[in-house]
Amino acid sequence: MQVLWIFAHPEQRSLNAALRDEGVRSLRELGHQVETSDLYAMGWNPVVTAEDFAHDPADRLVVGAESKRAFVSGRLSADVQAEQDKLRRADAVIIQFPLWWYGMPAILKGWFDRVFVKGFAYGVMDPDSGRTLRYGEGALAGKRAMVVLTAGARETSMGPRGVNGETNDLLFSLQHGTLWYSGMSVLPPVVVHGADRVSEDAYEVAAKELRARLGSLQDEEPLPFRYQNGGDYDEDLVLRPGLAAGREGLAVHYSWE
């Protein structure tokens, strides 16, 4: 497999960097090809501007429409095109970051903002049916994705009744609203809890789990998100009656039953 490892942590001597090195080494030992995007080391610019699209600043910028025009005509900035090329080559994508204020570091959010432009990761149409291809379909369908997350919170506090919220709920906007939306199959995340107080023994446990999960990257069952165009949603994109009966919220978008 060709794997793209996206890394968002500012410190090369951190727990995150050690896990990244462990993971990349493990993948290569398994015979996979690995490319990396170390966003802080790259000095990645997370801010969308008119320069991304070679857009005349004198004209009003409509980001979605202009990003698609720039994508189709090859006018996207060179750094964005380079990241899109890495994604095209990848069979699987690892997204690694520390959980900061219940979300991604700004530099990683900005990577998605700039790279996942209209026409590339969203706004993709089926030419035969005219349907929008998203939530399990689209240009990135066929690729696998997995989040590697560190969090300061203890594991119990990120469980179903934990004060911090359940892990997959915290990651829903990324796993469902970005990765699955653009077509990628999303594997359950690897989470290292208590990241600011990991002992040597705890690190070895985390590294062992990471190696095991990477070893099953090709075969592990993804999270069972529902396909938008698979018949579960009506014409208003509302889950049909009878599915996840009596339930509401994020959990209804998984086809567990």
Automatic annotation (TrEMBL):
GO molecular function: NAD(P)H dehydrogenase (quinone) activity
Signal peptide span: none
Entry-linked InterPro entries: Flavodoxin_fold (IPR003680), Flavoprotein-like_sf (IPR029039), NAD(P)H_dehydrogenase_qn (IPR051545)
The UniProt record lists the keyword Oxidoreductase: yes
Keywords per UniProt: Oxidoreductase
One GO CC term, this protein: cytosol
Domain Flavodoxin-like fold residue range list: 1-213
Pfam families: Flavodoxin_2
Family: Belongs to the NAD(P)H dehydrogenase (quinone) family.
Listed name of the protein: NAD(P)H dehydrogenase (Quinone)
Organism: Amycolatopsis marina
